[in-house]
Write a structure and sequence with these properties.
147 residues; alpha+beta; Immunoglobulin-like; 1 helix
Length: 147
């Protein structure tokens, strides 16, 4: 193919493909709209010293992780206090998408205990976020796993 001469038909084909690609690039650039994150109304907290407190609708949610500091590939327990409604939660990586990990909750007294584990990452530090949906509220709690 490299030894072929550039014919008039081949030149027209190359120019046509370039025109199509440039048109697609310009169209995509002009019509681009920045998407808004789905968690725009979510309350955020950082679980940095075992727990974080989040002010909700009339009450304060207390969240904690055990064991702390969190280690990869081991069972992690998320405890949520001060709520009567069973939460629904997923865990996902922030810097790198590694799938969504469901958190399985069970009630123990006045607390909800959720169990999950996060996989090992190639980075020395990996930030994960737990998205907790409860009634009509969304809370996002971040935590860091170190190797």
């Amino acid at each position: 193919m490299a030894a072929e001469k550039l014919t008039k038909a081949r030149l027209i084909q190359i120019l046509f493909l370039m025109a199509v690609l440039i048109t697609a690039f310009v169209w995509r650039t002009v019509t681009y709209e920045q998407s808004t994150p789905q968690d725009e109304g979510a309350v955020r907290c950082q679980i940095s010293e075992e727990s974080c407190l989040v002010e909700g609708q009339g009450d304060v949610l207390a969240m904690s992780l055990k064991p702390f500091p969190v280690k990869a590939n081991s069972e992690i327990t998320l405890q949520i206090s001060n709520t009567n409604v069973k939460p629904v939660a997923t865990v996902a990586g922030v810097e790198m998408y590694m799938g969504e990990i469901p958190v399985i909750f069970e009630q123990q007294g006045n607390n909800w205990l959720g169990k999950f584990s996060v996989p090992d990452c190639v980075h020395e530090k990996m930030t994960w976020e737990i998205t907790i949906k409860q009634s009509n509220e969304t809370v996002i709690a971040e935590f860091t796993v170190e190797k």
